[in-house]
């Protein structure tokens, strides 16, 4: 899917990283993030998500990495001035206040003094931390640290914001506040890249996602497109299903213990179920509900990490090359 202006803010090809012990953290990763979208990267623990983020931020050196970040080759240090970054396990000096922390990191990003003071005040208000602005980081909870971490990533007014587990340890109110901030940033035309385990959070904000499993991207695209095969309509009626329903190839009937029946019609268009509804009404049957249903992002994720041959969940972590391993083809 192309972005509105046809550009890719992140365009990765053939990204590979192997750690000691022949652990393949990343294997021929290919990924595109379009301008002005919220993009979610998900995968099991050890799948290589943080390694990929660190390669983009030049924290980790890849074995191979082709592609661009904001139009420049991966590893181009001056480009990072246009990026806001929140690492997964960030640590701020405990003796600084929240305001001092934001101004300190803005100074490192070469933001001028008047701008960083103004931005610090604005962002502390945005993340709901104005009342704690002049209290030391040592007094902050984990959720408050995450809020300040998000604000820190925005101090240089970046074009691209890369967030590694931004809602880790944040309570439901804080997660909602962070979602609102991310959506507002997207409305401003900024591009957001999120690495997170909170699938329900990603489903609410992401335009597109990629699923990384054992160092490979196994799925990438819009959630609606990735779950299209699972989309269906479920029609609940307050009685047993009529005989004709069982004879229709496009319907599946499930009988409920409460005497109700559910007619399941595979498809994505509302027009496809209108003849069925008309026939139920003609039979004078009571229609309790009509509901469109599809896989959740969690369902899609679980399908992606399940071995189709054995039905078992794939082992966490990156792939380890055995002595007699056969070279896998690239995709």
Throw out a few tags for this protein.
331 residues; alpha/beta; Rossmann fold; Alpha-Beta Plaits; six-stranded mixed beta sheet; five-stranded antiparallel beta sheet; 27% strand; disordered C terminus
Q: What would CATH call the class of the largest domain?
A: Alpha Beta
Spans where pLDDT lies below 50 across 5 or more residues: 1-6, 323-331
What sequence of helices (H) and strands (E) makes up the elements?
A: EEEHEEEHHHEHEHEEHEHEEHEHE
Overall residue-averaged pLDDT value: 88
What general form does the structure show? globular
| Count of discrete alpha- or pi-helical segments spanning 4 or more residues | 10
State the helical fraction.
25-40%
Report on the biggest sheet.
6 strands, mixed
CATH superfamily of the largest domain: P-loop containing nucleotide triphosphate hydrolases
Would you write up a description of this structure?
By secondary structure, this protein is of the alpha/beta class. It has two domains: 8-226, Rossmann fold (3-Layer(aba) Sandwich), CATH 3.40.50; 232-293, 2-Layer Sandwich (Alpha-Beta Plaits), CATH 3.30.70. Helix content is 29%, strand content 27%. It has ten helices and 15 strands. The protein has helices at residues 49-56, 98-108, 113-126, 142-154, 172-187, 199-205, 223-226, 243-247, 274-282, 297-304; strands spanning 8-19, 23-34, 38-42, 64-69, 72-73, 83-86, 160-164, 191-195, 208-213, 216-221, 232-237, 251-255, 261-266, 287-293, 319-320. It has a six-stranded mixed β-sheet, sandwiched between helices. A five-stranded antiparallel β-sheet has the order 5-4-1-2-15, covered by helices on one side. The chain has a four-stranded antiparallel β-sheet with strand order 12-13-11-14. It is globular and about 75 Å long. The two termini are 19 Å apart. Mean pLDDT is 88; it is low at 1-6 and 323-331.
